[in-house]
Amino acid sequence: MTEIRKGLAGVVVDSTAISKVNPETNSLLYRGYPVQQLAERASFEEVAWLLWHGELPNPDELAGFVALERSLRPLDDRIVAVLDTLPVTAHPMDLVRTAVSALGTLDPTLLEKGGDIDRTLNEQRAIALFARIPTVVASIQRRRRGQQPIAPRDDLDYSSNFLWMTFGEVPPAVVVDAFRVSMVLYAEHSFNASTFAARVITSTLADLYSAVTGAIGALKGPLHGGANEAVMHVFDEIGEADRAEEWLDSALAEKRKIMGFGHRVYKNGDSRVPTMKTALDTLVEHYDRADLADLYTRLESAMEDRKQIKPNLDYPSGPAYALMGFETELFTPLFVAARITGWTAHIMEQLEANALIRPLSEYVGPDEREV
Ligand code: ACO
């Protein structure tokens, strides 16, 4: 009998030096550094560099990278035109996916011999996507609200500029910092579904834009990145803290999956949740929204009581993004903006020792027969 591991659960498919998820100790390391320490002490730009290069940047490297990243933020007019053509009501994940795919068509180096999988060119592409995805996401948020997109500013760091382009002002430091923390926590998580999708596509020697476009598609689903959006729909459905237990009991009776809870790898709690919950607490205090914190706690406790299943990162990040002022449909595109770092690091790692990813299946259809 062939042993089938549905969903590749528990299957080790390759090695990676980018991050280590340890479910026993509930820890997550990026290139050896605990993610909690990075969230406390590093900028998102430093974390991006770390994921790509394996070491934190020295001051000169950081200055060079930051200057380049800021210069790459504006969008080519043709990308703006593509976004203008598409319905403003389309799901933002579909718009971001399309924008990334369109960016690939504007990269002439893809047509050079070997240029599509060249490491140096891929690093440049990774930086360009890191710089431009925020401009795309912010413009989508503004279009949805009937507002004109705001051009990026090169005097602001990544997080401040992202919020500036979205809201037309740089919010207080507590808000910018909570946003930075969320980006650091979402940046990388080893062989999750979207990263694996990117690696599968890369393994065929397709280009980086193709791999990232596919990864965005994989991230959209509510069992993966789409859960941060789905969490907020749950909060809206429940409405107030007093209804949390009743809502949960009927949702579980209908065999619904409760979004923002559970994880394929962590069974005793997601290592990233405490750090994001602290960031959420600062936002709750800043915006004076104890009601939201109550709902959060009541649903979490009820889930622990009924199912002993703990929250994942999407549970605190959803309400955090809502408090910052993002529309719910924009939450997963924010995850894209963060995870572009991890995806592109994995794409480059895959190419360093590539083998086509092509598993087997057990055939269970009809036996051979005549037409
Ligand atoms: N709500 C209700 N029950 C759950 C949940 C949940 N969120 N998560 C797991 N369970 C239950 C399952 O129903 C199953 O119970 P059973 O054995 O009685 O049938 C058991 O726990 C095991 O669950 P599986 O779905 O088999 O576990 P798996 O490892 O395949 O799933 C997953 C992990 C997909 C994340 C799941 O927990 C889930 O659907 N969660 C909700 C979606 C979500 O929040 N996704 C975000 C993931 S993290 C991220 O992308 C940052």
UniProtKB/TrEMBL annotation:
What does the UniProt keyword field contain? Transferase, Tricarboxylic acid cycle
Write down a Pfam family by its short name. Citrate_synt
Q: Which InterPro entries match?
A: 2-MeCitrate/Citrate_synth_II, Citrate_synth-like_lrg_a-sub, Citrate_synth-like_sm_a-sub, Citrate_synthase, Citrate_synthase_AS, Citrate_synthase_bac-typ, Citrate_synthase_sf
Q: Return one Gene Ontology term, BP aspect.
A: tricarboxylic acid cycle
Give a GO cellular-component term: cytosol
User: Which Gene3D superfamilies does the record cross-reference, listed alphabetically?
Assistant: Citrate Synthase, domain 1, Cytochrome P450-Terp, domain 2
Pathway, per UniProt? Carbohydrate metabolism; tricarboxylic acid cycle; isocitrate from oxaloacetate: step 1/2
PROSITE patterns per UniProt? CITRATE_SYNTHASE
> What positions constitute the catalytic site?
263, 314
What is an example of a GO molecular function annotated in this UniProt entry?
A: citrate synthase activity
* Catalytic activity reported: oxaloacetate + acetyl-CoA + H2O = citrate + CoA + H(+)
The record's section on NCBIfam families has: cit_synth_II, PRK14033.1
Q: Which family does it belong to?
A: Belongs to the citrate synthase family.
The protein's name is Citrate synthase
